[in-house]
Amino acid sequence: MNLNQGSFIANIVQILERRIVLAEVSWNNGTIASIIELSDEDPSRPYLLPGFIDAHVHIESSMLTPAEFARIACRHGTVATVSDPHEIANVLGLEGIRFMCDSAALTPMPILFGAPSCVPATPFETSGARLDSVQLAWLLENRQAGYLSEVMNYPGVLHDDPEIAAKLALAKRFGYPIDGHAPGLSGEDVKRYAAAGISTDHECSTLDEAREKLAAGMHILIREGSAARNFEALHPLIGEAPERVMLCSDDKHPDDLVAGHINVLVARAIAHGHSVFDALRCACWNPVDHYDLPVGRLRVGERMDAVLVENLTDFSVLVTWIAGQKVAEHCKSLLVHHETKPVNRFAAVPIDTSDLKVPASGEQIRVIKAFDGELFTQALLRTPKIEHDKIVPDIECDRLMLTVVNRYEVARPALAFIEGFGLQRGALASSVAHDSHNIIAVGADTDAICRAVNAVIAAQGGIAVADREHVELLPLPIAGLMSDADGDSVAARYAELEASAKRLGSPLRAPFMTLSFMALLVIPELKLSDRGLFDGRTFSFTPLTVTP
C-alpha cells in the first residue's frame, strides 16, 4: 500500500482567497493531484488546513532530539520547523549541527536548520566551540543550513565588525534569509540593523517596538514559548500586518510541547477576534514564503502537508499529513521513536561549599531581578546579608545565590545573587544555560547548590532539584541539552522536577527555563556568565560589590 496517496472530503480553508469550500482533495506520491469543489462550506464536516509551522525554534530546548521533537509536534498539526541549532553548536560546533541534521533525516518533517551566526554568543563566556565565517560557508554551501540564524551581536552589526560583516555577506551571496535578534533596539539603530539585510526579529516585547521594526522593513515573529511569552502584547499585529507576521515558540520545554504547539496560538488569535485567514497566513503560509520551505499549502501540484481540525475555534487536531503520509491521528503520533547515540562535551569536576563563599566587602551588592515570563532582568542594589564575614542568601528577602560553573574546563564558579525565584529551601541546577550551556544553579543554601550541581556533573548533563539530602535528576546525555528517551517520558519527568521546584517555593511558571536564561548575556540588564557578573547595557563585566 502506498502510504503517500489518498483522498479526503472536508471543508478546505483557502487562505489567500479567503474562502472555505467543501471539496475532495486527492494526492499521489505525496503530491496533491486534484482539489474538486463540491459545495459551499458544510459546518458539520471537519476543516482541512495547510500544516502549522514553527517559524523559529531551538529544538534543543525541548530536551528532545529533532526526530523525537517531530514525533511529538506533529500531533498538534505541525508539519515543519525553522530551527536554529546554536544551542548544540555552542557545545559541539559542527559536530553538534551534524548530529541535528542526522536526527532530522529520520523524520518526514522538514526541519530547516540555520547556520548559527553567534557561536559563541559573546566573547565574555566560555563555550565549547567557535564557528567562524569559513565554517558557516561550509554549512551553507553543502546545504546543511538554509538561512543565517539569529544575529544576536547587534553591536557588531552596527559597528561593522569584520567577522559579523563576513557572515552577513555569506548569507547574501547564497541568497538565504538572515534572522535577527535585537531586543529593545529602536530609532536609527533599527534602521541600520535592518538595512544590513536582517529580515526578522522574534525579540519584540511591546507593540511599539514591533511596529518600529515593521516600519524598518523587518518581519515580526510573535513568540510564545515556555519562558518568553509575547503573544498577548503582540497579537494585534496579526490583523495589522498579516503578510509580515509569523508565529514561533523559540524555546519550548517538553511538557509544554506535549500539551500543544502553534495550533494553540492560532486558537488564541481566533479567540481575540482575528480573522481565521489572517491567523492561518501567519501560522501556515508566511514561513514557507520567507524561508523557501519545501512545504505544500493545499494547492494542486504541491506536497500534501496538511492538518485536519475539528473546528475553527479550538483547532483540535484530528489528523496530520506530511508529504501525503499520515503521521498523527487523534493526538497519537504514528511516527516511531528512534534510538540515539549521545554526543557530548563535559569536563567539569565536582564543587564543594568552599567554592561558594563570597567575602563581605562594600556596603551594597548588585543583584539580578528575574521576572516570570521574561528574558529581561533588572539590576538592583541591595544591602547584603552577612554571616561570618561572608555574603549569604537571604531567604526572607528572596535573595538567593546564583552560580555558573564552567563545564568545558576546570575553573572556580562565578557567583552572584538573584531575586525572583522564591525558593524557601533547596536548589535547582541545569546544564541548559543559554547560550554557552555551562552549569547554572540557584539555591537557598550552599549545601543544596553543591548537591544539585554535582548531580548534573555526575550525569554529564541534566537538570536537578536538591532538597536536603534528596536529589532528583533528569539526565540529558546529548550535549547536556537533550535526552535520548521518548518525548512523553521526558515530559513527565520534567514536569515532576518542575513540580518539585515549586514545592521548594518557586512561584515561576517555568523555573528551569527562566534559570537557563540567567546566563544569556545578550539580554539586559544583568546576567551571570562563568567569568562573572555581566551588565548587558554596557556589554561589560561589573563587580558584585559596590563600594562608596
Report on the architecture of this protein.
This protein has 548 residues and is an alpha+beta fold. It folds into two domains: 51-293, TIM Barrel (Alpha-Beta Barrel); 353-546, no CATH class. The chain has 16 helices and 31 strands. The longest helix is centred in the last third of the chain and has 17 residues, at 487-503.
Give the secondary structure arrangement, pairings included.
Layout: E1 6-14, E2 19-28, E3 31-40, E4 47-50, E5 52-57, H1 66-73, E6 78-83, H2 86-92, H3 94-104, E7 111-113, H4 133-141, E8 148-151, H5 154-158, H6 162-174, E9 178-180, H7 187-195, E10 200-201, H8 207-215, E11 219-223, H9 231-234, H10 236-240, E12 245-248, H11 254-259, H12 262-271, H13 276-291, E13 306-309, E14 317-322, E15 325-329, E16 332-333, E17 358-359, E18 364-370, E19 377-382, E20 385-387, E21 390-392, E22 399-405, E23 414-419, E24 427-430, E25 439-443, H14 446-458, E26 462-467, E27 470-475, H15 487-503, H16 511-516, E28 526-529, E29 532-535, E30 540-541, E31 545-546
Parallel strand pairs: 1-4, 5-6, 6-7, 8-9, 10-11, 11-12, 18-23
Antiparallel strand pairs: 1-2, 2-3, 4-13, 13-14, 14-15, 15-16, 17-21, 18-19, 18-31, 20-21, 22-23, 22-25, 24-25, 24-26, 26-27, 28-29, 29-30
